[in-house]
Amino acid sequence: MNNTYDILIIGAGLVGSAIARELSRYQLKIGVLEKNLDVCNEQSGRNSAVIHGGFAYDQGSKKAKFCIEGCLGFEKLADELDIPYKKTGKVLVGNTEEDYQILLNTIEAGKKNGSVGLRMIDEEELKKLVPAVTGKFAMLSPMSAIIDPFIYTIALAENACENGVDFHLDSEVIAIEKECQDSYTVRTVNNTFKSKWIINSAGNNCTKISDMLGITGYEIRGTKGDYIILDQKVGHLLPMPVYPVPSTTYMGIHVTPTIDGNVTVGPNANSVTDYSNYGVSKNAMDYLAEDASNLWPHIHRKDYIRNYSGIQPTWKDKDGVIKDYVIEARKDVPHTVNLVGIESPGLTSALPIARHVVSLIRETEKLTADENFNPLRKGIVKFSEKNSEEQAELINENPDYGEVICRCEKVTKAEILEAIHNPLGVDTVTGIKYRTRAMMGRCQGGYCQMRITKLIQEEKNKNVDEVVYSRQSSQMFTGKVRI
Amino acid sequence: MIEKNIDAAIIGGGPAGLAAALELHKHGIENILILEREKHLGGILRQCIHDGFGLTRFGESLSGPEYAQIFIDEIMKSGISYMTDTSVLSISKDRKILAASREGFMEINANAIIITTGCRERTRGALAIPGERPAGVYTAGVAQAYTNLYNTMVGKNIVLLGSGDIGLIMARRLTLEGANVLGVYEIQSYPSGLNRNIEQCLNDYDIPLHLSHTVVNIHGNSRLKGVTVSEVDENKAPIPGTEKYIEADTLVLSVGLIPENELSLDATVTLDPRTNGPIVDENYETSIEGIFSAGNSLHVHDLVDFVSMEAESLARSVKDYLTNSKSQEPCTMRIKTDSNILYTVPQKISGTKDFTLYFRVNRPMENVVLSIYQGDSKIMEKKIRKAIPAEMVKLSIKKDLIKDSLPLEVKLK
């Protein structure tokens, strides 16, 4: 790979991948540098997975504008990228006079933002929509939806990759130097790259990269949110996300159905400075369960299958008020687009943010459309979602569909092999998990992980001690038992 | 699509499924099909290369594969049909089975379905152990599969949480393969595994067992770096100030087994929340007519010998079911217990047949008296010198003892 680019994007989370995809519409040589071994290892894959209706953000803010745009455009995007998307709607549930007033104000503010269809519903209608909920009334946001955040990020990156973008994984940026007017040199641990443009979409490391670019003055803090995942057995009790009445700074602990029928409970919000510790404490889990049980009393220990946490980059002013997104192309640092504080609603806003980045570049750069650009991407066919006739047909065409590897999620060998040979070249265990759902079910890989790690070894010609779980140095095994 | 009509379809070719098939065949049922998702018959026994199997049933100590092979050889001789590499996708309450294999998609109509799907391990997520999520956290059965079937070493410096039998076996196994097993931490004040395994797997290798301890934190964001253990009080709550950090690259969990019943639930079979297996009668029939269950999918056993024997009893009932279809006595008498007993199997009976009652006590007990009542009258009494949760208690109950149709109440004093 020739390491000289027109545009180099730092960070292959959701926003970086979306920018890569939107820029691949033009005749440009684009590279993406990602420090992890896959594209959705940080906040992009660690959130509530809700496409928001856009009512919760200050009028006129980028958050409000991009969130509404993202929400309204998501169905079409989901079609193009062949990713799951379910317009469930969502409710904010209240009990008191004060709650009612806050929800009315939220509807007013939401309408001004351009949020569609917001309305109050009474207890009867609420119970019809979500029979298992506790509450006297609610605000309904019919546009809200759920998606799979892993697959969304992966789909954007794969679509960019198929349209010619180079993804350099395992490439943490350690220095950026300005060579001349038209070129930056970017050093990673193992490599050196040159590029005319630098885009900083480094998520929690955004200020590290801004500093390297010479843009100072931003101070972000991590906001860490913990979640519990519940078994699919309780999924039928929650047809749509259920939120409490929000405060001015925080959406509150909510319960959310996942696209695959599980339920997530969370998040709390704690300010942190360690961006690599995703540990979840017992107190946090107990607190989440207790708090969310007021909304939805079906959270029981026997249904816990996993927990996780996310950390998002929050930029607060001196009074602790959360600031809007910074997306800037500064004259004093030419040929850069700097993104700071891209937190929630980042999942909903990623594509509009990417389009905005393109428009900023277009202000100084002539962009020529690439007529070969293909916005369509095909995902891995899911055996478990097909009916009997289709399943029979799939096995006839390819016997690998007849080998069920992951019992809980009914993932077949054909799907695992397709995931192992993904366009980005990711071969971690979690890479396979995010792409297929194998190992995500209630047995958490008890039945299938041996088969999957063996397939990774065979297909990628790896020794047993080269199989990696998720991050660098997360080797699964120490070697063979007998040589 | 491949279609089949079968008298007795057996889901799972482990010890329960194999024993059920052979016993059915012995009693003249010919149209049997065993469906097995793995490449070979034998189930989890294939990875249990230690000995100690078969003492009750065969009077000798066999390894898991040896024990399984006895049954597999018999299956081969008898010509019973089986399909390996075949996953059952779903079953319905009208006993239609959908299954997939490389040969194609299958629809099987069965007169009786026998669920012998075994159990799965409780995971870290189910226990909600706090901390980061590095590589290097394995359940004991997964570690066993890697070690014994995949020639793969899961780690070098190993902490075990839970003293279940598979964990104890793996403490010895990993030690024998050169790993440094630093200790076994058990949240209860008594071991969960069998005494013989405490002796032979821990004491013989100087592996310390720390009772009333648990893991309260997991460290490392790539590979495991260490765990924090803590002493717990009588309510199993960690005692502040007793935390200790242990450097380790691997945490092996042996914290319980859960009967595998996803297929039973497809068919709307009612489960017992105490066993996590189906509620069955003395015929091992579930709440759905023609669907039967035995072995670890019914309730977790401590010895495979009992699994085989239970499956054989099941097979005799299934034979009756298939030959005098639907003329069985209704099983309406419930079996209740006091709080000293974790569960019983069966949970209901007809009262017209001799049967074996299996149960577990909820904590170690000595010199207790077991009584069975119907209403106010005591129909049976038995002294039990010693009972621990790890060992299932078996009791034969003659039909003559049963007086009327009142529920049976099992009490321990």
Key attributes of the depicted protein:
A: 483 residues; alpha+beta; 8-stranded mixed sheet; globular; B: 413 residues; alpha/beta; 7-stranded mixed sheet; 26 strands; 34% strand
Overall helicity of chain B: 10-25%
Low-confidence stretches of chain B: none
Report the total helices of chain A.
12
Q: Distance N terminus to C terminus of chain B? A: 58 Å
Average pLDDT confidence of chain A is: 95
> Which geometry of chain B do the CA atoms define?
globular
Report how far the terminal alpha carbons of chain A are from each other.
37 Å
Helix content of chain A: 25-40%
Main structural class of chain B: alpha/beta
According to DSSP, the number of beta strands of chain B is: 26
Low-confidence stretches of chain A: none
Radius of gyration of chain A: 22 Å
Number of strands of chain A: 23
SS summary, helix count of chain B: 8
Write structural notes for this entry.
The complex is a heterodimer of chains A (483) and B (413). Helix content of chain A is 30%, strand content 23%. Chain A is of the alpha+beta class and 483 residues long. In chain A, strands 1, 2, 9, 10, 11, 12, 19 and 20 form an eight-stranded mixed beta sheet that branches. In chain A, strands 13, 15, 16, 17 and 18 form a five-stranded antiparallel beta sheet that branches. In chain A, helix 1 packs across helix 8 and helix 2 (62-81) packs across helix 8. Chain A is globular and about 65 Å long. In chain A, 56% of the residues are buried. The mean pLDDT of chain A is 95. Chain B has helices at 15-26, 64-78, 124-127, 140-149, 165-176, 195-202, 262-266, 304-323; strands at residues 2-11, 32-35, 81-83, 87-91, 96-101, 104-115, 119-121, 137-139, 152-153, 157-161, 180-186, 209-211, 213-219, 226-231, 244-247, 250-253, 257-259, 291-293, 333-337, 341-345, 348-349, 355-361, 365-374, 377-387, 393-397, 408-412. The longest helix of chain B is centred in the last third of the chain and has 20 residues, at 304-323. With 413 residues, chain B is of the alpha/beta class. Chain B contains eight helices and 26 strands. The radius of gyration of chain B is 22 Å and the shape is globular. Helices cover 21% and strands 34% of the residues of chain B. In chain B, strand 11, helix 6 (195-202) and strand 12 form a beta-alpha-beta unit. At the A-B interface, helix 7, strand 18, helix 9, helix 12 and strand 23 of A face strand 5, strand 6, helix 3, helix 4 and strand 9 of B.
